[in-house]
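The pair is listed for reference:
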Amino acid sequence: MQSERRRVDRLADEVPPDQWQRLSVGDGSKGPREFDWACVELTKPEQDGWQRWLVVRRSLVSGEKPAERAYVLVFAPGATTLAEMATAIGTRWTVEQCFEEGKGEVGLDQYEVRSWQGWYRHITLCMLAHAFLVILRTQSQMLMPQTQHDEGKKRWKPSQPPSPSQSLSAFKQKRGLACP
């Protein structure tokens, strides 16, 4: 455990090679998103049963270029494994994709309000519209029969995140839901 203040890159430099674990945090558009992960236990918090960690994600590289690292401060129950932390950190990609789709397709970023209540109503309506469209798209794609013509093509599956904006946009246009 560390009790003094130190830079995160220096803490990461001190992680022994055998402490790094190669973990996948889900499938991306180019296949599995694999990284090397390590965690450094930080000072104990005042709450019993909880712990603070510095989690370091290192890209997989080959060649002269040094590996890129990302740092996340984690506060979780003491029994949390590195794989569980990496999975939770990896869900950020899905959340960002949902926000990007919401901005492009349902006007999540198109508010001009002067009050918190107006902003809250706008955001709530946009999130509801986005959820409705995603459910419609999922149901329509689950009910679509697969033809011989489509067998060689990739199909969107509900367990995998769709490509940003394009699939929801195409769905809206096909259903006549797109605004001119």
Q: What stands out?
A: Residues 158-165 have pLDDT under 50 and may be disordered. Residues 8-90 form one domain. DSSP finds five helices and four strands in the chain. The helical segments are 8-13, 82-90, 92-105, 116-143, 166-175.
